[in-house]
Specification:
The protein is an all-beta fold. Helix content is about 0%, strand content about 60%.
Length: about 70
């Protein structure tokens, strides 16, 4: 999964992926994200097919998005 995001000032950003039961299955912290566009890659190959919630949070912003993993 590729993430692209931009912040207005330097902040630490936490990324969590939750399964359907609300358990954290992936966790990463990106330190000192600045006001340039950040592109991060998250390896989800070890996750089972299904629906997940991807959540990015910083001191001032929280963003959540549904993530569906399906094998070909």
């Amino acid at each position: 999964v590729n993430l692209s995001f931009e912040l207005k000032n330097v902040q630490d950003v936490t990324m969590n992926i939750y399964d359907a039961l609300g358990n954290v299955v992936k966790h990463e912290v990106y330190y000192g994200v600045n006001n340039n566009t950040e592109i991060r890659t998250i390896n989800i190959a070890d996750l089972s097919d299904g629906v997940y919630i991807l959540k990015l949070s910083s001191d001032k912003v929280v963003f959540s998005k549904k993530l569906v993993k399906a094998s070909n």
